[in-house]
Amino acid sequence: MEASRRAAVRGPTFIRLLARLADADAAPDAQPLSDRLSQWIEWTQTLALSAALDGAPAVAGFGAAGTVQAEADECARVRRMLAAAIDGDRAFAPPRAGAGAAAARSAATVEDTGDYPFFRQRYLALQQTLEAGAGRLRERLRERLTVASPGLARLAALDAVMERALGRRERSLLGAAPALLGRRFERLRQRAQDAADGGEPDRETWLARFRTDMREALHAELDLRLQPSQGLLDALRARAND
After folding, report:
1. Is residue 35 part of a domain?
2. Integer angstrom CA distances of residue 115 from 125, 182, 194
3. What is the pLDDT of residues 6-22, one digit of tens each?
4. Measured at the alpha carbon of residue 233, what is the angle toward residues 128 and 177, in degrees to the nearest 5?
5. Model's pTM, two decimal places?
6. 191: in domain
7. What is the mean predicted confidence (pLDDT) over 128-141?
8. Number of compact structural domains in the chain
9. Are the CB atoms for 13 and 223 separated by under 8 Å?
């Protein structure tokens, strides 16, 4: 029964993963996307959207397929860099003995207490890294679209407006992840204590499970944050192939 309820959860991998971590039975939202957007976008922002849709900016000539390949390479590079930042974070790879006094103190704090605040701080720091890296890539691609064609320049303007309009909502939704992970952390710890039946719980096992969950959540968030850039790249590639 539990597995069948999980299968009912729809949406991006990030949303489905958080639903699983929260042990949530997330029913599909029947409200149309247009209605949702009308709630999230302020009326003043609709004016900017209208201007972006109606505008016909002048553009310079577009560079050729080599430019598209360069942007595809940059997208791949940014993805690798941000994925490496996640996997290499000390939340997932505690420093080894002899790695330095400050690093050793950080690792000891986690291993000795098993408290969640350390992981929360690391998640928030990595979220900032992902937001900055994905944001710079998105801006770079918009600049390329601006000089590609009038239609792509309009798409770039529209994307910029949508980013501003939905940015607050996006940060609010993504900001819920640390709290959900915190509850997951406590559940795993409690289950380990219950399974120990009065003895010493196997802390390393449940902490390893939590680290895996946290890493998966961050990689899913990375995919989510890079979706707009992937869409811009696809539009650029389609134009080059015309």
Report:
1. no
2. 17, 10, 18
3. 444 456 788 788 788 77
4. 30
5. 0.78
6. yes
7. 97
8. 1
9. yes
